[in-house]
């Protein structure tokens, strides 16, 4: 249940803080913003609550690489003194957040989960971190990742919903920290499925925006023509608040769109046609998850959305193969110098990945990029017939074990095409109570359509407000 104004009407300061503390696991950014604005809580008090939760949950979850307790408290106190200097009271003012450990943070180690970057401390922030700082958000620390956000070398991070299951990857720590109530928002990245899949496995909401909508400047690339930046949140409403701060053109990233920044808003727009993807490609969907997808479709239909069955372009398989060539080649190019000098600094999976990437010929790389271009064009054409697509966000709920991070197969095509997707919870398994999620897909630059559908869906359901048993 969200914290409402009436709950605080007759409470003194001490009583208000106690109510916030007991309800913090259902707290959203929107809730916290109102509490901060109305001075029911201070940034220092809010940050302290999350630092307390980190202290309690982190030994079990292992989501963090670095926890910047003193820096976060100092920043919160600074904001309290400077609040009157803000031109407007930003909706992220005083909001604590986490950043995946491939995202540059000035004066804080950024090691990418690899011995190859051990002890590296950037002298500047990534653009997304700078934008959040300008908005008054407070960085709590850095979260775990697979080695350089690649598919191998998963960290020891646990899924808060079931400690015996993976939290997904490569944004493992960001998603797990969010699900365990250790932060109000967490930055992650996606090259195949590293935002969508962890969100699905941890009961979170995440928007993977159109390629180029959010700057990658200051983010260690996994594959620069495929990488996307995003943020894990509880709700679509919170996703909008974060996106509106971190999106927009950036002179330091030539891949960002040069169009004026376009903020998203919450609307009750229902006249969209949604394509239900029925390709054989999605045949491996778990039975219980498929039933939840069907139930979610029914909710969308009841809201007023029209649905039709639809197929993805026939070039899908070729485009997937091309994605692997591009990712291997670009990963190898980025790490080549250090790898050739000191290969032992890299884990065995990444060593093999780089080795294979270095063997890819320029002609094969260019051919793969051409195949990707054709697939992008065909995907754009598809959205002339529908406004949105719907698929499961993953083949299964979070797999058992932490030696693998699960399959990104259902996310990869849309990352490859650079089109925006929204992942939102739609239910939980009966036996292990693991989250299940759907993936909504829109045409390039149509994030607003995703927000419209996701916002209305979350008004009709409460899956996104559930919490793991460890938090109850």
Automatic annotation (TrEMBL):
A Pfam family annotated for this UniProt entry: Amidase
Alphabetized GO MF terms: catalytic activity
Xref: Gene3D superfamilies: Amidase signature (AS) domain
Domain Amidase positions: 45-450
Protein family: Belongs to the amidase family.
Source species of the chain: Bacillus canaveralius
Domain of life of the native organism: Bacteria
Protein name per UniProt: Amidase
């Amino acid at each position: 249940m969200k914290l409402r104004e009436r709950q605080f009407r007759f409470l003194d300061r001490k009583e208000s803080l106690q109510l916030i503390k007991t309800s913090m696991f259902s707290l959203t950014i929107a809730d916290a913003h109102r509490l901060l604005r109305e001075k029911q809580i201070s940034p220092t008090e809010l940050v302290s609550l999350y630092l307390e939760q980190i202290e309690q949950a982190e030994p079990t979850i292992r989501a963090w690489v670095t926890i910047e307790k003193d820096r976060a408290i100092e920043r919160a106190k600074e904001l309290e003194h400077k609040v009157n200097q803000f031109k407007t009271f930003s909706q992220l003012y005083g909001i604590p957040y986490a950043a995946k450990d491939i995202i540059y943070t000035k004066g804080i180690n950024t090691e990418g989960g690899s011995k190859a970057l051990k002890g590296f401390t950037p002298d500047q922030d990534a653009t997304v971190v700078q934008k959040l700082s300008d908005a008054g958000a407070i960085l709590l620390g850095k979260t775990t990742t697979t080695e350089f956000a690649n598919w191998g070398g998963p960290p020891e991070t646990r899924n808060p919903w079931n400690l015996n299951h993976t939290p997904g990857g490569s944004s493992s720590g960001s998603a797990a920290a969010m699900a365990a109530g250790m932060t109000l928002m967490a930055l992650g990245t996606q090259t195949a499925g590293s935002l969508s899949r962890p969100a699905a496995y941890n009961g979170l909401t995440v928007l993977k925006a159109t390629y180029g909508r959010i700057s990658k400047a200051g983010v260690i690339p996994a594959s620069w023509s495929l990488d996307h930046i995003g943020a894990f949140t509880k709700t679509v409403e919170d996703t909008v608040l974060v996106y509106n701060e971190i999106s927009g053109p950036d002179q330091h990233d030539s891949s960002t769109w040069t169009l004026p920044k376009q903020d998203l808003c919450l609307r009750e727009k229902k006249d969209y046609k949604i394509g239900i993807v029925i390709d054989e490609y999605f045949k491996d969907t778990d039975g219980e998850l498929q039933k939840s997808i069907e139930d979610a479709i029914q909710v969308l239909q009841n809201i007023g959305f029209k649905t039709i069955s639809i197929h993805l372009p026939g070039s899908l398989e070729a485009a997937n193969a091309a994605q692997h060539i591009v990712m291997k080649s670009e990963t190898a190019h980025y790490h080549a110098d250090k790898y050739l000098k000191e290969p032992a600094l890299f884990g065995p999976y990444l060593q093999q990945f780089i080795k294979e990437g270095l063997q890819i010929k320029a002609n094969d790389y260019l051919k793969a990029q051409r195949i990707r271009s054709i697939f992008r064009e065909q995907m754009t054409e598809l959205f002339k017939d529908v406004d949105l697509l719907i698929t499961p966000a993953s083949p299964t709920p979070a797999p058992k074990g932490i030696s693998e991070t699960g399959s990104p197969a259902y996310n990869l095509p849309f990352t490859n095409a650079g089109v925006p997707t929204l992942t939102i919870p739609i239910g939980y398994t009966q036996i292990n109570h693991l989250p299940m999620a759907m993936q909504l897909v829109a045409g390039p630059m149509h994030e607003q359509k995703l927000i419209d559908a996701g916002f209305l869906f979350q008004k009709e359901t409460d899956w996104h407000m559930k919490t793991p048993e460890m938090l109850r």
